[in-house]
Amino acid sequence: MKKIISVLSLLLILLTCGCHKELQTEKNDLVSYNGNLQVNGINLQNQYGENFRLKGISSHNLYWFGDLISYDTLKELRDNWNINVFRIAMYTEEEGYINNNNIKYKVVNIINAAIKLDMYVIVDWHILSDNDPNIYIEEAKEFFSEIATLYKDKPNIIYEICNEPNGEDITWNNDIKPYAETLISTIREIDEDAIIIVGTPNYCQDFDEVVTNPVYYKNIMYALHFYTGTHKDKLIEHIRFVLGANIPIFVSEWGTSTANGNDGVFFEESNKWLEFLDIYNISWINWSLSDKNESSAILQPDTGILGIFDDNYLSTSGKYIKNKLKKKS
Ligand code: DCB
Q1: Pick from 118, 173, 242, 321: CA 20 to 30 A from residue 134's CA?
Q2: pLDDT at 199 > cutoff 60
Q3: pLDDT digit string (tens) for 270-297?
Q4: Whose CA is nearest to atom 19 of ligand 1?
Q5: Catalytic (active site) residue 160
Q6: 130 lines ligand 1 (CB under 6 A)
Q7: How far is CA 193 from CA 36, 111, 188, 227, in A?
Q8: Ligand 1 centroid vs 9 CA: distance in angstroms?
Q9: Distance from the CA of 18 to the center of ligand 1, in angstroms?
């Protein structure tokens, strides 16, 4: 009964938000043109089978920085930063979904805004301190069932089922792949073909077991995350090998800082990574939309939403990222 009420109330929000759809811009990198995305070999493609690339920004923890995200800020990021995707990092721990279930209403509001704006949107189950995705597998199944039930007919939605599995004893073969197969089959029962991004071992950096033991479902991509002050040539070489093994990569999070989200900005290393991603047409999402006092934040500390609209309030990383997003490729 509780579940029915919760699905019904989410449905109500969905209906009330969908009625005044704004006039869509004629941009051919948005959803009305590209439709249902698909994976072919290592390539992400649009509904016409043309190679297609998503670029955008990730939220920080919604509990702390969720107020920065609204229809207006997403519209500004779409129109003046050129993003065609937004990633909703819904933390599980750290004031996230597990102890604060209501955060899903914020998620639904952001998804609705993205749909109205004709943008793609990634719903990220942001595990981190809970390093093993199996810890909250039941909650994950319930959450993604609800989201998939609401949005199964919308080409906008992309599911990211576990942010960054980590810890030496958490392996692809024993822990992550079994979790992924359970979640993928849960989502596929409802939404047959949307793109699903799967996290990989060691904070999305170790693909050795993925290469020999991938998941056998269509439209699956594997998450690569990197922080350019920490992860350099060695990881680039590993990813070259992974792509050679026909494993499709999606960079659902990267930062211009070191792996702790601070220090830098590492311009030279960031340029090198972006050039590499350009060669393979790999989609990327920058960490993060926040005004926290850390170098990976795109806004200067405590500026609120100002920096999204006025370059004077952008951080060094924010200026760099805006520039890169505006560059056509
Ligand atoms: C990832 C996480 C992301 C984290 C960033 C930067 O973690 F997906 O949640 O964001 O990368 O570290 C940081 C925020 C901080 C916040 C902290 C905890 O920027 O403001 O305090 O999350 O919520 C990574 C990525 C790579 C590695 C380690 C971490 N690594 N990590 O390679 O060792 O430990 O968080």
Answers
A1: 242
A2: yes
A3: 999 999 999 999 999 999 999 999 999 9
A4: 261
A5: no
A6: no
A7: 8, 18, 7, 31
A8: 33
A9: 34
Q: Which two tokens stand for residue 193?
A: 């073909």
Answer whether residue 11 shows pLDDT above 60. Answer: no
Q: What CA–CA distance (Å, rounded) separates 181 from 185?
A: 6
Which helix (H) or strand (E) is 261 found in, with range? Answer: none
DSSP secondary structure, 136-157, as one string: GHHHHHHHHHHHHHHHTT-TTE
Express each pLDDT in 29-40 by its tens digit.
999 999 999 999
Residues in the chain: 329
Ligand 1 within 6 A of 128 CB? yes
Alpha carbon of 87 to ligand 1 centroid (Å): 15
Per-residue pLDDT tens digits for 12-30: 555 544 444 444 445 799 9
Extract the tokens encoding 43: 């390539």
Cβ of residue 160 lying under 6 Å from some atom of ligand 1: no
- 269 as an active site residue: the answer is no
